[in-house]
Here is the input.
Amino acid sequence: MPYVTTWNTDGIIWTFSDDVSAEEISRANAEFYADERSDSSRFQIIDAAQVKSVEWNDNHIAQTAAHDIGADRRIRHVKVAYIAKETEIVSKLEKYVELSRRLNSSWQFKGFSEMEAALEWATSEE
Here is the structure.
């Protein structure tokens, strides 16, 4: 299975593994927005620590950021933490964050190397 979704009281955690396609990223995102719990979510954690490769080009990144910016208007002040180890994956996630910030996202973004730190930041009140 390319990813596992875990809902927490205040947010969602996606755990991706192996080879991930743009379609899988889009499906995870769409499932989040289709769930009524997304309206009250305070965080998203994208755990890509076990991802070997990702098929997510600049066009896919722009589509994801644009979709999230639309949701940003109704789901405010979300913290998005990402965990990645592979340089290619980190680079693509950073492109997504940079584009989201340029589009004036109200969401906060931060990269981590371990789940514990990501979860602590995502659930903190700061």
Notes: DSSP finds four helices and five strands in the chain. The longest helix spans residues 87-102.
